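Researcher: Quick one. four chains, 670 residues in total.
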Amino acid sequence: MNNHGGRPTVFDVARSAQVSIATVSRVLNGRTVTDQTLVARVRRAANELGYRPNMVARDFRHGGTRTVGVVIPDLANPFFPEVVKGIAHDVTADDRRLLIADSGESPDEELRLVGELSGRCDGIVLCSPRMPAENLESVARWGIPLVCTNREVAGLPLCTIGIDSAIGMVQAVEHLAGLGHRHIGYLAGPPSSWSDGERRAGLDEAARTHGVRASIEVAGATSDDGHRVLPELLRRNVTAVLAFNDLVALGALARLRELGLSVPADVSVVGFDDIPVAAFLGPPLTTVAVAKAELGRRASEMLRRLTAGDADQQQERLPSTLVVRGSTGPAVPDA
Amino acid sequence: MNNHGGRPTVFDVARSAQVSIATVSRVLNGRTVTDQTLVARVRRAANELGYRPNMVARDFRHGGTRTVGVVIPDLANPFFPEVVKGIAHDVTADDRRLLIADSGESPDEELRLVGELSGRCDGIVLCSPRMPAENLESVARWGIPLVCTNREVAGLPLCTIGIDSAIGMVQAVEHLAGLGHRHIGYLAGPPSSWSDGERRAGLDEAARTHGVRASIEVAGATSDDGHRVLPELLRRNVTAVLAFNDLVALGALARLRELGLSVPADVSVVGFDDIPVAAFLGPPLTTVAVAKAELGRRASEMLRRLTAGDADQQQERLPSTLVVRGSTGPAVPDA
DNA sequence: CTGAAAGCGCTTACAG
DNA sequence: CTGAAAGCGCTTACAG
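Model:
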């Protein structure tokens, strides 16, 4: 005896409808059953008993779950829900479902979650993974279809879809240099973030190209981080601040306000990601936009191809583009 | 033949380790196996083969999934990730996992998702459901442990944990009345939202108590809604605006700025929820705070009790409290 | 076209 | 203490 909870099974329906369990299964799955009286009897019995198929048994039988797992560092960062929406759109269009897990920016938890999900999903989208390369490598060896967003590891044959941060970074620096800024500060993200590395590299190069100075202070991924670290940058006399993401930029904006500095009159601020609130801030945030939902959609597509077996690992990149709003303006003559 | 993907099973491990599948299972689940050479052999074989247990089969055998499903209206509203974090905290502490689904504010999709999840989870937390009462009633009859947040249906024996919006609403009106505001506008939420009904009722009563006028315009749940509808309220000459939630308030703030009105000098604005960005806005948003993570935690606790069978349906309420920040100030003499 | 039976991968009483 | 066997609920070849 198992049947925990005493839920009715195909067997109960079959007995009640006076047919075989095979017929029950066929009727309930829309398979070919000619005799309409049988169909009617089965439906009636199922309804009367309040039969609901045991999906776990069904998945087990099918040998697949039609479920995609998604691991993200922080659900509270509005960037990720947008990516998830993109994934969800593609996944549900295909009559599959999504299992979302939040690692809380912890690399260990991230690894644990992937392990957990891998047994219950047919594929996994690992968003902006923070885990070290060697862990990523062993996960890749588990053999479960896996796509990473915002992370590439040199020499690791992994399906990835990332943002080309450099493009947007170059545009941002160009924009600021054009406004007369000669010293730009960067509020860097979490050290384990691949995107942050990309952005630093993009900044270095763009700064060199335009002959501007770039100062870096490590902040993190949250508004608190931006709020906390901004003064360090000010101490270095920057006239413009680039932030790892919009949340960090938001924290920086708040701190500037508290310090009595006005944006963009005294200091210019540029974010990254273009999260939904960015356009509604005062001033509206100039930021480097990335196609978040598109990123998710593409990741899901890659996963589909991977699961279908007709794709080798590949690395894609989506461009990023500067969106100029109100938080950037001419540099003050001497700051 | 099934074994899609040719993954190794207990059977393969058993053969390789020269033991029975029962022993494999026992070793891998930390059950009593005395002979340490057997243990070693099994572990080695499992490692060599790269054996990973089929979790679906395990769940199937156990007759339970140790998974909690969560359905939310919109992952992009920062309110919900906070609630989810509260649920996740309680759920993962108990070695269970979370399956999150987003209904996109669609009542139909919501019903579909609950149906989908109910077959794959041991319990469901239905956050701020928008579906009509009759659907909620039939879902309740499915027999799966179910807890609703932010929704009570008169006469329906449902486990619910809600926010007592009235408390915060009264405090907000009191606060505004104390600042001299005599005409308050309310940017209402989605018509299907129970919380919105509660807030309207709280507003009505508080307005009567303090002898202030209250005007209502239906907005929605997003910043765009607030941005779009705000002018209607202004046309009615309100001096203060209450918003259904912080996102709506954010949209209203942006629109006010565009109209050249300053907050709180010209108009006061109060939000609801106290989402993480609220404190970082310019001006920082005065808002009615609710314990979002606590709401999630309590929902998960109720679900646990429900699953354990030692609880009848019950309705809990969490208080809400006004947090005064910079977006509210004295009423202008004539607005 | 429908029914009887096998089997998905695992765990756990039940024997030995 | 370990192994052989049953069985979780379902679907799908295989017979009839």
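The CA atoms of residues 39 and 190 of chain B lie 59 Å apart.
Researcher: Thanks, that's what I needed.
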